[in-house]
Amino acid sequence: MDKYLITGFSGFVSKHFLELLEEKKEIVSVVGIDINYPGFAYTIYKHVTCNFHKIDLLDKSQVDNVIYNFQPNYILHLASYSSVAFSWKNPVASFTNNTNVFLNLIEQVRLLDLKCRILSIGSSEEYGNVREEDIPLSEEHALTPVSPYAVARVSQELISKVYVEGFGMDIVITRSFNHIGIGQKELFVVSSFAKKLVEIKSLNLHNAEIQTGDLKIIRDFLDVRDVVRAYYLLLKKGRKGEIYNVCSNNGIALEEVLNKMVAYLKLEVNIIRDPKLIRPSDNKIIVGNNSKLKSETGWDAQIGLERSLEDIIHYWQKKHENIV
Amino acid sequence: MDKYLITGFSGFVSKHFLELLEEKKEIVSVVGIDINYPGFAYTIYKHVTCNFHKIDLLDKSQVDNVIYNFQPNYILHLASYSSVAFSWKNPVASFTNNTNVFLNLIEQVRLLDLKCRILSIGSSEEYGNVREEDIPLSEEHALTPVSPYAVARVSQELISKVYVEGFGMDIVITRSFNHIGIGQKELFVVSSFAKKLVEIKSLNLHNAEIQTGDLKIIRDFLDVRDVVRAYYLLLKKGRKGEIYNVCSNNGIALEEVLNKMVAYLKLEVNIIRDPKLIRPSDNKIIVGNNSKLKSETGWDAQIGLERSLEDIIHYWQKKHENIV
Question: Average pLDDT of chain A?
Fold first, then answer.
């Protein structure tokens, strides 16, 4: 029986990963760890047996115990301090926490000599500011990380490579681009837009205002359900030590994402650019090339942007109705 | 009056840096910090006033205090856990200690908003395994670090870039190749050879054996006196956020270094290759291009390899005579 350890279990990605595992109808065991309790039910599945441990991944002895007791053969390392904005305010905490949680994990797998594949989740932020002619970015593109968060992610990748080459460990590495979907917190831009627009809609406001950062930036958004299918396939079919972009291959300006949601809800809103929401050194355009992921694992995106956005809006509408 | 903070003060580089400062005949103030007491006299200078604080650079509050009290306008960050071999045995300690000591330092300079130039010392190990046709390596060459130590050094460089671009800090970055010279510990290969050969010579041994690692590897050795002149010039004339190779531009196999010392001492020795001294993933050849350092600072190497080796041998002979 396959045993999956999932870090960052209480984030929004792991619930979708559990649903994918359940769909596969294999009998699997999952242990989730996170510093926060999950906000979703994880014991409802028929094929997936899931346990949760509330631990701080910076606490090495607790991490060591979980790995020793569970002896996973797959680790999906979703945990991170993933906010770029936080990393500008707390550069040292962002860097050290991100790298330390990863090191605590892989070091225990190494010392126990576990036969265990680890999926190390990196970020498109690693590429930094790139030229338009280099879009879509392939995995060979040079990395010039421009935030403390991005530097931590590059470091994690370099550490992974050394553990694969120097210690023979089985680590597959992603550079995951922006993902969106049901359950994502409003800290993230698309959820934040959806939540605000749903509120405006429900209050029937005319000439409502919405505060935004820089809407000209172009990102590559992938539905979280496509993301977790990529993670599953990489755990099963990825090559160790290799890096894979997880992305849609399509760029879209935040402005267009916002406009699509405004149109879907049949709203009129005034968009106000708030300088406080502009980040220093923010990347203008990030779009990835996903051909390596496709050709090596058979993955393909199944959920288009329109459907993602509609599902996200419906999710926030349901949440709003429960509140009101 | 210029004020220099030197970390890793008790290592062998800082003594040579103090001697260079003294030669300049400027009145300067130096504070040295290190976890160990220095093994050399640092209060003997006429122009350089030097104080030492024994502190652990991982202890953020102590580092903060020294910087706050001294308010340096230059920081020469020599401190590191610089052994590649140690990093293979203790990958987590090597990575986290190296990155944490650097972060503690620059974060305090940032928070105090000091007008202070920092020289971040990196390593030729950052380049990793390179092809012979890429030798000598220029600063633009891709980095593929192959040891935990090298990954920490790349991370330090990436952090430096982010602090320069994102926070406007004044950091100049080196990639320092192997340096050799008087006072270097026998943990390092050339000192280790010199010490053993001096012992063999003094005992008048015939057919003595010397245990070595892989003698075919090619390195770029620079005398420490040339290294500290480069550091001084980079502090004065380097461009912030820029990376500079500090190297001789010449490659030499360890075998040839050993043979030169054997010949100088008129010895005959049997060279025994000890598999225990071979490191995993060791780089076969590392030679740097120093044209950026030369053209931007006016630096040039003044001490040839033969003179370096002779001075090192004389140093070990003096040490040996004091012991015997």
Answer: 94
Partner residue facing B88 (CB), from A91, A92, A166: A166
Closest CA to A13 of A80, A72, A59, A62: A80
Cβ of A158 within 8 Å of Cβ of B151? The answer is yes
CB A301 within 8 A of CB A248: yes
For residue B141 the two structure tokens come to 């060459």
Residue of B64, B86, B92, B101 to mutate when probing chain A, most A C-beta within 10 A: B92
The residues facing A277 across adjacent strands are none
**pLDDT, position B137:** 97
Rounded to whole angstroms, the Cα distance separating B241 from B127 reads: 18
pLDDT digits (tens, 9 = 90+) for A106-161: 999 999 999 999 999 999 999 998 998 999 999 999 999 999 999 999 999 999 99
DSSP A145: -
Helix axis angle, A305-323 to A254-264, nearest 10°: 60
**Quick check: B96 contacting A, CB < 8 Å?**
yes
Domain B3-180+221-249 matching CATH 3.40.50.720: the answer reads yes
> What integer is the mean pLDDT of B259-276?
91
Question: Based on the number of CB atoms within 10 Å of its own CB, is A25 exposed (0-12), middle (13-18) or buried (19 or more)?
Answer: exposed
Report the candidate in A72, A76, A1 with the shortest Cα–Cα distance to residue A34. Answer: A76
pLDDT at B53: 98
Say which CATH architecture domain B189-218+251-286+303-323 belongs to: Alpha-Beta Complex (3.90)
d(CA A120, CA A246): 12
In this structure, is the dihedral angle defined by the CA atoms of residues A172, A11, A99 and B118, taken in order, positive or negative? positive
The listed CATH number (3.30.360.10, 3.90.226.10, 3.40.50.720, 3.40.47.40) that belongs to domain A2-180+221-249: 3.40.50.720
CA-nearest residue to A145 within chain B is B158
DSSP A24-90: HT--EEEEEEESS--SS--S--SSEEEEEEE--TT-HHHHHHHHHHH--SEEEE------HHHHHHS
pLDDT tens digits, one per residue of A250-307: 999 999 999 999 999 999 899 988 887 776 656 789 999 999 999 999 999 999 999 9
Tokens of A269: 């809103």
Nearest to A158 among B145, B159, B166 (CB): B145
Cβ of residue B147 closer than 8 Å to a chain A Cβ: yes
Per-domain residue ranges of chain A: 2-180+221-249, 189-218+251-285+302-323
**How many other CB atoms sit within 10 Å of the CB of residue B316?**
24
Tell me the C-alpha to C-alpha distance, in Å, between residue B154 and each of A140, A172, B95, B99.
18, 21, 10, 10
Chain A residue numbers touching B100 (CB-CB < 8 A): 96
Residues near A123 by beta carbon (within 8 Å), at least 6 away in sequence:
A82, A149, A150, A153, A175, A176, A177
Taking the mean position of all CA atoms in its chain, how far away is CA B123? Answer: 8
For residue B152, the chain A residue with the least C-alpha distance is: A155
| pLDDT > 90? residue A43 | yes
| CATH code of the domain occupying A189-218+251-285+302-323 | 3.90.25.10
Backbone φ, ψ for residue A15 (5° rounding): -60, -40
In chain B, the percentage of residues whose pLDDT exceeds 70 is: 98
Chain A hits for B163, Cβ within 8 Å: 91
Does residue A226 carry a pLDDT above 70? yes
